[in-house]
User: Fold this.
Amino acid sequence: MSNEKMYNVKICTGTLCHVMGGAELPALIDFLPNSLQSKVKVTGMVCANYCKNPENKPPFVLINNELIQEASIEKIIKHIQKSELEF
Amino acid sequence: MNSYFIEIGNNSIQKRGQEVCGDVFMSRKLQEEGRSIAVLSDGLGSGIKANVLASMTASMALNFTIANQPIERSAQSIRNTLPIDNERKINYSTFTILDIEYDGETTILEYGNPQFLIFRETEPIDIRNVNISQKSELMISQLKAQKEDRIILFSDGVSQSGMGRADMPFGWDIANINEFISNKLKYDPQISAEKLSKLIVNRALMNDSLSAKDDITCSVIYFREPRDLIICTGPPYKKERDETMVNTISEFNGAKIICGGTTAQIVSRELDREIDVDIFSGDGDLPPVSEIEGFDLVTEGILTLGKVSDWLENNEKINYKSPAGKIIKLFFKNDRINFLVGTRINEAHQDPTLPVELEIRRNVVKKIAKILDEKYLKEVHIQYI
Assistant:
């Protein structure tokens, strides 16, 4: 039994997320620290309508179905590292 | 409705050392009359002078034919108008005029060019015997073209290519040209007019050992079934019409593009098919493409369409690997482009603080449709939903 937690990072590829910085996010895999490289899977999703709520701030990313707003590569890595510590 | 689609392709190579080609090809589509006219003219000599002669001849021949002038009189007018060459003291240019009606009825007038060829499916046929009148070197042929026929015109740069070589002392003769084309058609029966003319021109250049001894031009006219494409972009104004939109696109017979995240979601929901996003297929400027089973292409909406519009205007910049380039490639492959445009406005796109200005979909589509119609001679239909 592997005691590794996996992280599924889903990047929204909608128009709004793209222009608000989501375009940079697929480069995440190039910036992952070595310790995380085998644990993170990067995929995409079409606009999931998070932007329809004016309170939400794009770009959006889901990490294991948890919504991250104003996502950046740095923010995603920090979030994963934090859950690694808790895990 | 047209019974045929007439695809026209032309390629030229100028004589080595010349700036321009002395062969000129022109064509015009007269949609209202259901006619297409094409003219190939070869001017005396080569270079600028020949190009001027051929351009004048081709444009006069084209316009006289459009105006339904009797051919004898057109030929006389052309001869009277052309300037006289200083060295040779003659004026001269050859021409072939094609007058094609969309039901296949075709009239071909030849003056001085190598004889045209006709291929029915993969084999050459001889239609010339059926109806020919010969009067002052002017040849008139008439034929009823069928689906999958191709008419091939070329200048003497093709038929005389390789002349003087030990293996082809009199150039590339008709029998060998026929065999060459027949082989290409057997290999690829659906080959486009553009590609076939390119292959013939390249082969003629090779016969001349890659240094063209005369201007080389080949035009191909291909009668075929029109190819249809539908591009569906934007959610319908009323939600009740989602189903209609999805039915229209899924029942469509031809290539299918979905352009827009929300549109893709509607299709995915109604057909219960998954959307698979290929996250690394974007080109930096544009979001990536996705896949839905049964559709040729699924892309983001407004940014991609904006780029399609820019690239169609400036076609040397097109990157065919980008999502926008993939749409353009499908446009080029098809003859009738149908837009199904949902007109619901995406509220989130109207925020004035966005870093880029997002256009209104309807306007971009109208612009693309206009370019496709005017510059690329596609038949375009727009339906709003």
